[in-house]
Amino acid sequence: MKQLIECVPNFSEGNDMSIIRQITDQIETVENVKLLDVDPGKATNRTVVTFVGTPDAVVEAAFLAIKKASEIIDMRKHKGAHPRFGATDVCPFVPVAGISMEETVVYARRLAEKAGTELGIPIYCYENAAFTAERRNLANCRSGEYEGLPKKLSDPLWKPDFGPAEFNATAGATAVGARDFLVAYNVNLNTTSTRRANSVAFDIREKGRPVREGNPVTGKIKKDENGNEIWTPGTLKACKAIGWYIKEYGIAQISINLTNISITPVHIAFEETCKMAQARGLRVTGSELVGLIPLRAMLDAGKYFLRKQQRSVGVSENELIKIAVKSLGLDDLKPFYPGEKIIEYVLNDKTSAKLVDLTCKGSF
Q: What is d(CA 38, CA 28) in angstroms, rounded to the nearest whole number?
């Protein structure tokens, strides 16, 4: 089987599509790479790009994209709802077919070294590509965001894994990683309150919320006898979540990253969010996918909701997907096109002149 790696770089520009096109044009110049999805967000001012290809080709395409982003995105002017610290904020590699996570890490670190050395950008390696346990967590690498980079880079404990320990004012810093398939998923609420959305996010996310003295929002965080902060975990494993307000939609959302959909599937995350929102007097109106989702996740969701209705699951694949879309409200804010959002459907699009022999169905 051909070795295939998926790359999902996030760029700190979500409003000017001419800038994004310049970046994706660079990706498409590389042979043995296929651009799968470009998903911009206005309020987050961030675009998630997904492409797949052979390992060496993915490294080259990712490098060209990072280089172009560093030339045309100026982080001194960037504002957005999503945490960020660089023009190319994150660039994760995901093993797709014929390649192990260990092998994928080698290629991710190769990209990190090349970008740090040749482009002069501070690079942090995270998740499976991390060199230390503390840097596995992206939130730790990105803490302080762009505005905190000068201080972070002056701390010997946060010397970049590759590239100079110097502040690059226009490009910022980039996190390069290797991870399992992640589903980025936003749940829509009938409120404009970021605080209320965050309350639900803290209810469900694995990390949970800190235990505070007095006021549960502003009180001092309690610590144990060893000086460690005390946290109450949330209800969902392999789930990261924050709340934000999306101006273009006029609603607050819970932005969820599901890092292992075998542990917490999309439909379970949706149901738990509905439950916690209702407990706080809120209502979930629908949801949206950012980037792509495996076919298996959609079929599992369709079967879950059919069983909940005490109906037979012995229906066609198309019917299962339709049930999943309507039950999750994936068409709440805009139309949902399975051919553009389900990764196997995109990968197996025979209209592409590149990589027409992809055989990835079921590899997730």
A: 12
| C-alpha to C-alpha distance for 333 and 225, rounded to whole angstroms | 48
User: What is the distance in angstroms between the CA of the first residue and the CA of the last residue of the chain?
Assistant: 15
Q: pLDDT digit string (tens) for 53-112?
A: 999 999 999 999 999 999 999 999 999 999 999 999 999 999 988 899 999 999 999 999
Residue of higher predicted confidence among 259 and 161: 161
Distances in whole angstroms, Cα of residue 106 to Cα of each of 56, 93, 99, 117: 11, 10, 11, 16
Residue 67 neighbours by CB under 8 Å, 6+ apart: 26, 115, 118, 119
Neighbours of 351 (CB within 10 A): 5
- Rounded Cα gap, residues 273 and 201, in angstroms: 8
d(CA 63, CA 57): 10
Handedness of CA 356, 17, 145, 28 (dihedral sign): positive
Domains (range + CATH), the chain: 4-178 (3.30.990.10), 183-347 (3.30.70.670)
User: 252 near 187, Cβ under 8 Å?
Assistant: no
CA 39 and chain centroid, separation = 11
Type of residue at 102: E
Contact 185, 266 (CB under 8 A): yes
3-state helix, strand, coil in the chain (%, to 5): 35, 25, 40
Catalytic residue among 34, 67, 82, 179: 82
Question: What local confidence, expressed as pLDDT, does residue 225 receive?
Answer: 86
Instruction: Answer whether 12's CB lies under 8 Å from 46's CB.
Output: yes
3-state secondary structure of 114: helix
Give which of 184, 9, 178, 182 is closest to 95, Cα–Cα.
178
What is the pTM (predicted TM-score) of this model?
A: 0.78
| Tokens linked to 344 | 């196997």
78 is a catalytic site residue: no
Least Cα distance to 58 among 86, 35, 90 occurs for 35
Neighbours of 167 (CB within 10 A): 16
